[in-house]
Amino acid sequence: MNKKDKNQQPYRKQTKILIGLIIFLFSAISGRLFWLQIIKGSFYRQLSEGNRIRLVATPPIRGRILDVNGIVLADNKLRFSLFLQPHLVNEDNWILLSDRLSKLLKINKKNLDHRYKNGLRNKKFSITLIDDMSQEQVLRFKEREADLQGVQIKVASIRFYPHKNFAAHVLGYIQSITYDEYIRFSKEGYKIQDVIGRSGIEAAFEHVLRGQWGGEMLEVNSAGTIQRSLGFRPPQAGNDLRLTIDFSLQTAAEKALSDKSSGAIVVLDPMTGAIKAMASKPSFDPNFFTQSITTQEEYDRIFLSSEAPLLSRAINAYDPGSTWKIVTAMAGMETEKFEPSVLLKTAPCLKYGSHCFPEHNRTGWGTIGYEDAFRVSSNTFFYQIGVEVGIDELYATAVKLGFNERTGVEIYREESRGFVANKDWADRGRGWGLPGSTPWIPEDIASASIGQAVVQVTPLQLARAYAVFANGGYLVTPHLVEGDINWLNVPYRNKVDIRPSTLKTIRRGLLKVVQSGTARELKIEVPTLPPIAGKTGTAEDSRGGDDHAWFACFAPYESSQIVVVTFAENTAGGGSIHAVPMAQKVLKIWNESN
Description:
This protein is an alpha+beta fold.
């Protein structure tokens, strides 16, 4: 090798390394291009389209809820909010713009600055400056809109309850969808900014009321500025829903509850089961849940209050007291152990187990039959029947009348099934003890005979049971929406296995209660009312607290058209004092409209 070749050898080696490096880089770039354009080409094309196209969803208008005569109970109204597109306004321009907005719309400039900076920090595509604008603010903005570049008004439809607390537990309320619900329901068309029925009719008929989202496809440039619309699909409004609720009767029921701290009233058509009114107190304003801003104090007042305003007393269970005596009487006659003509000697008290169960007048009523036992609401008469027939028969009779199960009303998710004790329940430990440690005792059956301690029913269940004696022996299905169902047919209306003589005897006893018994004030105060049958009840609260006051009735006595159950929770004084006047107010309005 000559000297020249020796001098060129290092350069040849460097050239080979450089060529190799170039080949390697070219191969890497080619491989990467192959990966991006061939293997992942469709993915990145879709991503590119996504960066170029914005989908602006348009929410549907929720269907209205109407009463039986078409009066609107739940509607929608427009909410105007002010929002800023930050890519159109730099921070220097914002200083002047925020000053103009503050003076024009009479709002605190610090609040505007806070929202603006918070939006920038979170890199929001649009920043909401005012959640709910007044009409005056909207008009002021429209007059100066041309001088306020980058700021726009957004119009949204929100749920609105024009009568506020009216029938709140029936209507229910809506709330923003939670993330878990969104994951669960996104396949059904729900979006993360959606609302959903949370209780009442709003929840039970969510699929009918909600409608379908629409939207517009927009083309934007790299700065996010809208270039053109690529298409628009209008949202599909939800369907209106007409209830069985009668506005005038519901109003009367709520007024009748106005002087009570808590309670419920149910008005039912005994033939079809249509609910004409269902009121509960305390109540709440469903508009609370559609407010743009709420405080923690307001939330606590709704959700943590000891008064439990969200709880519907109409479908919650309580000790029924003497209104339950229709069950004991039916069990006595249907077992044929105490025929309709039976006469029993009452007493100041009767001893069962270790306790002497008293007559409420402390002296007894002499020897009486069923009709007078209802009229004076004798306890010792019904103790004798209940203890003799036994808890199995009492329980079976209660089930025939629809107790210890949900009624079938559409808002069943909030409905208590109530409770009727039996021997098996006691043998299993009564829900708190070990099996075999809490046996059935004589005191239990005595209490159960008059609707105390081991029996809890809802006002709606009681109305359904009394409808059996109002309509000639049929157990109906209470409902709030008629729909396309024939409510007079099976399985919505079923014949109860009850003898005509039993039905007749109980009906006549209930008639005497109003004619000359514990509810006689009903007709005295409003003599124009037709013949009415019913039963008062004063129930000790097994959870503690003052007595409950009850009254259940139906009218007219022949060819009944209405069942009314009134309930005043923890209202000492008795059914005659508190519950009868409540029913009287409802019946008066019903009678005037017929």
